[in-house]
Every structure is written in C-alpha cells, then in structure tokens.
Amino acid sequence: MPLGLSVLLFRPKWLDFVGVIDKIAGMSKEPAIFISKDDAMECAWKPADPLGEALHSLRMSGTFYSRSELTAPWGMDLPPMDGTLMFHTVTAGSCWVDVPGTQSRLLRAGDFALIPHGDGHIIKSDSQAEAIPLFDVPRTVWGDRYEHIRFGGGGAETGLVCGAVHFEHPTAVRLIQMLPKIITIDASTPGSDWILTTVRLMISEAQEMRPGGDTVIQRVSDILVIQAIRSWLDHDPKAKTGWLGALQDEKIGHAIMLVHRDPIEPWTVATLAERVGMSRSSFAAKFMELVGEGPMQYVRQWRMQVAVTWLKETDASVGEMAERLGYQSEAAFNRAFKNFVGETPGAVRRRAA
C-alpha cells in the first residue's frame, strides 16, 4: 500500500489538522493529509493550552444510563468495569457511596460522584442496608442505552441518575489514570446548581429519545465528567504534581502537547528543546523533574499508546504502523509493543474486535 494512502486510511481523527498547512504548501516531506470541513472546524476550536487539550480529549463512547427510584432500605453492589468511568447524581433524597480504599461518602440531592477507574463499589440508603448485586436488581430496559430501576423497602425515597462510559483517546486514558478513586461535587458549593439542570436534560432525552437524543446524552456526559475533573484540578494540590503539573508548565506542557499532536514526527530531545525555546540539557532535566521520565522515554510510550488506538480503531497492518512510528522492522515494533503493553499487537486487535 502506498505510504500516502496508508496515512489517509489509518490516521486517527484526533490527530486531525496537524501539519496540514505545511504539507499542502510543500514545506514538509510527509504526504498531505486532507480533512473534512467539520474536522477542520473541530481543530480550529481545539484549546491551545496543554491541560485544556487533555480535557478536550475526554469524549466518551459506549454510554449507558440508569435512572433509579429507590425506597429505604436499599443497596446496590456494582461490579468493577475495566476501562469504564462511572458516575452517580442524586436527584432526590440521599445515599452513601462506598469505594474500596476510600472513606464512605454521603451524597445529598444535587451532589455528583465520579468513579474514574471503574472500581467496584456499593451505593446504599444507610450503613446497615444490605447491598444486592447490581444485575440482580429488578429493572425496566428502555432501549440499548437506558434503563429504569425501581425497588426498595418502602421507606425514605432517593432518586439517582447513574452512567457508565468508555474513553479511548490516549490523552484521556493518561488523564484518567492520574485521578483519585472517587471525585465528588457538593451541591452546596457555589455555582454547582448546573448539575441537576444538566441531569434533567439527560433524563428528558433518555425518556423521549428524539432524533439526535443519543448524541445529546453523550455530550451531556462529557460535560458532567469534565466539570467534575475541573473541580478536582482546581481544589486538590495533587493536581499540580507529576504529569498534570507538567502539562501546566509553559515549556514542558508545550513539549508534551507537540508530542501528543504529532507522534509520528521523528522527535529528538534537541528538536523538542528547540521548539519550546530551551537548551537541550535544561529541557531534559526539567522534563525529567516534572514528568518523572526522560523526553524520549515519554515519546516511545506515547507512540505505543497511539498504536493501541490504531489497532482498535483502524484496519492498518502492524507493518504499516511500525513504519509510521519509525521502527526499522515489524519485529522490532512487536517487541517494543509487547514490552510496553504486555501483549502482542495481534492480541490487542482480536480483543477489540
């Protein structure tokens, strides 16, 4: 397959617009990558700051929602869901959320809880309530993405809207890995009244399922998740350290953004340092200090994350991926991939099929 055609076939949409103008103008040796008007507009509105771009990558997929009307005593035991982010909003009454390794949290009407890592957890009316395995709870299924749960002992009423969503973008995966086991937003916090308003829109769309309803629901979930993460970023000192802290550094954050936007570029420590206006030695030292690994180690790991996305989302051959990512042979790429991911490219593709 010609190289230019392979780029057109398997360059992911989130790489959109990178280097297009230079390629069309003949300033680059890489083949031109032509994109749609919609993709160009998407890129035009992409945030210019690295942290904003990381949040921009949080576009969810495979969204599933549940609305619950519960009466005390009640409890639900949710199983772990790998690669899934879960959230709960209390629309009426109150409940407790127990995530292993954290303190129990009391949620009241208008509160929001985000469980970023898909950990199994329990939601219940009070500390003494028995928790039933989630899939044993009676429910009414309304379509592929929505269900209604109604059960309990007849006491105090609680209303919940819960969601489970997936994310694939490599930046989103990295960002989610940095989050704590649970993030909560208290309805009493000034400016948090948007939560119930947003959830009411989600409920309305899920019940009526008008044309475009799936899209509205998915975008609403994006808003809820991003707002919760923004709240954590604003208030938790841990958000200023490590990779997240590096994203907020003017020089190192810019370098990380360059690698994310164009992972197939033959980056070196020298070229990255030059692009951000630092000396090679100063750049390498500061990158190591903030990120916890060297620039080229980060580039190699990022390319492997990109390769995982390509395997899941495209039909490109492993050989084509190896060539695009700068490996001398498919065998060398396979070895590097297995060392990083823990399984072969073929295994990742079969699992995603």
Can you describe this structure in just a few lines?
The protein is of the alpha+beta class.
Layout of helices and strands:
Layout: H1 3-10, H2 20-24, H3 37-44, H4 50-56, E1 61-71, E2 75-78, E3 84-92, E4 94-98, E5 105-108, E6 112-115, E7 121-124, E8 132-133, E9 139-141, E10 146-152, E11 157-166, H5 170-177, E12 183-185, H6 194-208, H7 213-235, H8 242-247, H9 250-261, H10 269-276, H11 280-291, H12 295-313, H13 318-324, H14 330-341, H15 345-352
Parallel strand pairs: 1-10, 2-8
Antiparallel strand pairs: 1-11, 2-7, 3-6, 3-11, 4-5, 4-7, 6-12, 9-10
Helix pairs in contact: 6-7, 9-10, 10-11, 12-14, 12-15, 13-14
Q: Can you walk me through this structure?
A:
- The protein is built from 15 helices and twelve strands.
- It is α+β, with helices and mostly antiparallel strands and 353 residues long.
- The chain has helices at 3-10, 20-24, 37-44, 50-56, 170-177, 194-208, 213-235, 242-247, 250-261, 269-276, 280-291, 295-313, 318-324, 330-341, 345-352; strands at 61-71, 75-78, 84-92, 94-98, 105-108, 112-115, 121-124, 132-133, 139-141, 146-152, 157-166, 183-185.
- Helix 10 packs across helix 11 and helix 12 (295-313) crosses helix 14.
- The longest helix has 23 residues, at 213-235.
- The chain has a seven-stranded mixed β-sheet with strand order 9-10-1-11-3-6-12, covered by helices on one side. The chain has a five-stranded mixed β-sheet with strand order 5-4-7-2-8, with no helix packed on it.
- It is globular, with a radius of gyration of 23 Å.
- 45% of the residues lie in helices and 19% in strands.
- It folds into three domains: 1-46, no CATH class; 61-236, Sandwich (Jelly Rolls); 249-353, Arc Repressor Mutant, subunit A, CATH 1.10.10.
